[in-house]
Design brief:
single chain, 503 residues, alpha+beta, four-stranded mixed β-sheet, two-stranded antiparallel ribbon, 19 helices, 6 strands, 56% helix, 6% strand, globular, binds zinc ion, OTT_1508_deam-like
Length: 503
């Protein structure tokens, strides 16, 4: 046996290896680590919500308008009710003839799971609508232009309907209850005097109208609504009203909504804010697409020939540590390379390792590359004559693994011109997850860097587990809420149970 194969046969992946990266993400995924590292906060603005709203993307070297276009396109490509994440990248090829505006725009799509067969035709159709809007951008008030906008909105809502329906229904009872409480609590004078009160009431009223419209188009059970509701003449006006109220409320600042949480303490404005953010997401994206098509700077994009390409890479098997001891060794190695300020107590390591070996009793897991990393892999391993646009639109904020990939890749670039950006990260750890291959840098340097970022964050997390354990001990009481360790065990159990149901 050669020295090389001996190393490969060890049950614990070596620090800095791709398998160590995979194992760390598996470990983080059951701990629900939500430490958002400051490095993604630096280049992008985001809220902690995992779904995106079109809002300012702010980083040197990113063209904001293009970034918003790509994020909006990613959002409107989603159609499944759940678990669908889509990323989109772009590459522009100008024509050699300067007076000729033709040339080619290539849009590259990737998803976490298989994309529907019709996605390409759908995107081309949306693009055609945008082309017409761009062509008539100086005649906004003509009925044709309005018809064109409505046609595009209807097309998008039809595609997105399963997801939209799920979003609208998610907190229906809470939203209607809040509406009723607001109605009882405020007076006409309040509405007249305070912008935020007016915006909140308008938003809730539009939402109630939407629910009524859904009831009118109900087919079968309570949550079954015909997709034809989007062609109802009242649908788009209601959504316009809802989006406008949410947008104005947002411009006043989120706190103006949350101040209602103090006055009506039986209602969670935090959850409702996220809820309305998601309900209006598609409408905001449509508004963004309309605005780009009419932009004096970007409308020429729509004179180019559109080419849609879908990229995918096969899922691969990841071998996780095979025993509790192997997990403990992996954690030890992680801590050694991350060097937390205080040593972590052995009990914490042992109980974490035990939870991990229970959760991942299947040692081998099929893992796919997340969609934004698929596009990064494609863009950095293909020889393009003209570099793709350095921003990748995604329908959701990135997970911790993907954020570590983009940050590591960008740090290894000497020139800013070769970096790639996304909207940002939500700070959660996801597994199954597979490390992409990247071009333009040594894969080994890249893997090492991703590993050390994740190791640092994981060590940080273990430190908080250790702290919460010791404080629970010193108080000498069994708190009803449980320690972080209890929660981790519980989560491991619950996840295992879910996996069994799905299998
Ligand atoms: Zn990810």
């Amino acid at each position: 046996m050669t020295a090389r194969s001996t190393t490969a046969a060890l049950p614990v992946p070596a620090a800095g290896s791709a398998d160590a990266v995979h194992a760390l993400l598996a470990a983080g995924s059951i701990a629900n680590i939500s430490l958002v590292s400051t490095e993604h906060a630096r280049c992008v603005s985001y809220d902690l919500d995992t779904t995106l709203l079109p809002q300012a993307v702010d980083s040197p070297g990113i063209d904001k308008k293009t970034a918003r276009l790509l994020d909006a396109l990613a959002a409107i490509l989603v159609s499944r009710a759940q678990h669908e994440v889509i990323a989109i990248g772009a590459q522009v090829q100008h024509s050699n003839n300067l007076s000729d505006q033709s040339g080619k725009l290539q849009l590259v799509l990737a998803a976490n799971a298989a994309l529907p067969q019709t996605i390409q035709a759908y995107l081309e159709e949306v693009w055609k609508c945008m082309q017409l809007l761009a062509e008539h951008r100086q005649q906004l008030r003509l009925p044709e232009a309005k018809d064109q906008c409505a046609r595009m909105a209807e097309l998008i809502y039809r595609h997105n309907f399963p997801k939209f329906l799920r979003r609208v229904g998610k907190r229906e009872a809470a939203a209607l209850r809040f509406h009723e409480a607001m109605q009882n609590h405020i007076s006409r004078e309040d509405v007249l005097q305070y912008d935020s009160t007016a915006a909140v009431i308008a938003m809730l009223t539009s939402y109630s109208e939407l629910i009524d419209l859904f009831s009118a188009h109900q087919v079968g059970g309570k949550n079954e609504v015909s997709v034809d509701v989007v062609s109802d003449p009242n649908f788009l006006p209601i959504m316009d009203g809802l989006w406008l109220a949410f947008r104005l409320l947002r411009s006043l600042g989120e706190h103006s909504f949350h101040s209602w949480g103090l006055r009506l303490p039986d209602h969670s404005t935090v959850e409702l804010w996220r809820f309305f953010n998601k309900v209006t997401l598609i409408h905001g994206s449509i508004a963004e697409l309309e605005s780009v098509a009419r932009s004096t700077r970007l409308y020429r994009l729509f004179q180019k020939k559109l080419v849609v390409e879908i990229v995918d890479y096969p899922r691969k098997r990841v071998t996780l540590p095979t025993s509790k001891d192997a997990w403990a060794t992996l954690i030890d190695t992680t801590l050694n390379s991350a060097q937390p300020l205080k040593p972590i107590e052995p009990q914490v390591i042992q109980s974490t390792a035990a939870a991990l070996s229970t959760r991942f009793s299947d040692k081998s897991v099929l893992c796919g590359i997340h969609c934004e990393c698929k596009i990064l892999q494609r863009f950095t391993t293909t020889a393009y004559k003209i570099k793709p646009i350095n921003y990748i639109g995604v329908s959701k904020l990135s997970c911790t693994g993907c954020a570590a990939v983009f940050n590591s890749y960008n740090e290894l670039q000497n020139s800013r011109d070769h970096r790639f950006y996304t909207r940002g990260a939500h700070g959660k750890w996801y597994f199954p997850w597979f490390l992409p291959e990247v071009g333009g840098v040594e894969q080994i340097d890249f893997t090492n860097r991703v590993y050390s970022k994740l190791a640092g964050q994981y060590a940080q997390y273990l430190k908080t587990v250790a702290l919460s354990d010791s404080s629970a001990l010193s108080e000498g009481s069994q708190e009803a809420s449980g320690t972080a360790k209890d929660w981790m065990r519980l989560r491991a159990k619950a996840l295992q149970n879910l996996d069994k149901i799905k299998a």
